[in-house]
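Subject: for your reference before the review

Hello V.,

The reviewers asked for a structural picture of the protein, and I figured it would be easier to keep everything in one thread rather than splitting it across files. Below is the amino acid sequence we used in the manuscript, unchanged from the supplementary table.
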Amino acid sequence: MSAEPASLVGCVVGGHYKVNALIGQGAMGEVYAADGKSGEDVALKVLHEKAAEDPDLVARFQREAEIASRIQSPYVAAVLGAGKDRNGRLWIAFERLHGEGLDERVRREGYLSFAEVAPIVHDTLRGLEAAHAAGIIHRDIKPANLFVEKRDLSSPRASEYEHDERTRILDFGVSKLRGRGRKDSSLTAFDATLGSFAYMAPEQVRGSARADARADLYALGAVTFRMLTGRLPFEGSSALNLIALKLDREAPSLAAITGDTWPAALERMLAQMMARDRDGRFASALDAWHDVCKVMGDLPRRSSPRSQPSESADDEAHETVGATVSATYTDAGPSRRR
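And here is what came back from the structure prediction:
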């Protein structure tokens, strides 16, 4: 690792964010652990000096701060501030979350039980509901952009119905704000090369400008499929092969991939979330997911060991070139996982 990314450690950015440590870096910038004005934990995202020379990347970075700050939801990582420091560095301050990325979890575990999947999907649907109500389409829902936060429920103010984990949506860098029209057209064209084909809706593969709220639901359906089976709905030998499959076929059923029998309610739910024609998808899927959870609650508990994920389920193999960096659920699943 070069010395340059760690050069901000010990510095004060934006007038009041004291940088403590480098915690991540990508093609566009670094993320630092920092202390806020009142000592709160902050994740400080700073754009690389090299990336700052590209007007499209600068516009994308600034748009992430602008758009994410419009969403007020406990299921979306909150933006605390953004700006440019006296050295010209662009930065965004987010609340710092403690836990792990969903991509880390599924890579480690292979697949998850329905009891583990249910609250993750519920929380993501709540976060998407808030984003869509604010006129924002995320356009890059995938495990790497969902963070499973560990929560301290020891406080007397914590409700007995709260879970010790909560899923938060991250990274609105390639999101779309409805109503921007031509003002946002050049940036949308730039963003057409970003995101992950593995989770992308067929219409979005044809061009990011086509994506609406139903594209986010398609992507979440693909994430859910991946969590439950350890496999992606479509797995191609190349990005072009994967695109051809998405454009030509409906998503497979859980049974077709695993060889097991799954509850019809769950199969119908995922089929509608990942319908090839977006007019066949839900406008909002939260109530339908609650109904599925009620059905799944009647199934026995799982006792068999976890399987290992197949090599073809490696999400990184399908990353697009140019990318940067309430209910009680029982532990239930299909027959091979009880």
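For the response letter, the relevant points are probably these. DSSP finds ten helices and eleven strands in the chain. The chain has a mean pLDDT of 81.

Happy to draft the paragraph if you're swamped.

O.
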